[in-house]
Input
Amino acid sequence: MPFSETIQIKIFDGNPNGLIMCDLSNSNCRAYKVSRNEIQRFSEREDAENTGVYFLFGKDISNNDTIYVGESERVCTRLKQHLRDDEYWNDCIAVISNNNSLNKAHVKHLENKFYLLAKDSGRAVIINNNVPTRSSLSEYDATTLEKFIDHARLLVNMLGYKAFDTVEETAISVNNAKITFFIDAARGARAKGMMVADGFAVLKESIVANSTTPSMADNLVRLRASLYERGIISNQNAFSRDYVFTSPSLAAAVVMGRQANGRTEWKTEDRKTLKEIEEII
Output
């Protein structure tokens, strides 16, 4: 059964866009959100050089969200090195233990786990060059770290990033039920989707229209083309994985190959529109 958690937050210098520290009650998991220009401010913290994992967030040239997953025995020193990266990033979240109980083997294990979570989530383009190797741990340590991962994911989510959350985990329930919506339209479009906390998700194996209309906006045509280029939509016009759009209308437009109002195009099995469902939530 889900239970409530208490999180303590400190916003340094009263700047919500600067350095933020979060602690979870009854846990040794601590997360720092560090903007790119606040690395020096972070370095003044006594625990800034603790052993931990970190995540760098940015955008690529196509405006897709990006993430880099890393680990270090001296987190702040490693972050300073990343300021010289070719791949630009804006924010970092560093996850450490507040009692500095993590060691190199622990964080190598965590790095691999978080990389795989980000890959399964598919919410951001991973810019790591290689899959991180995972250290061998005792059964006791591996079990302890699973709890640490759960706590870290909660803190990362609370700080505004859902890079490690699946569609199922963020799906919105109505009367304790998760609702699936459908589109069955022209040119072969047959898709399923769900409302999620940060937009609207089109589900794996959904089929998009095999062409677009001449009136479809250029930005939508480019978005659709980028999804093909990235392999999110296959050459058979099917989504290769769940994919989250920022709105139901954007999702409907990509699926239908034309301008669309997602609040009226997405419908439940009993033909209720998304608009009707939202009005009763």
DSSP finds nine helices and 13 strands in the chain. The mean pLDDT is 94.
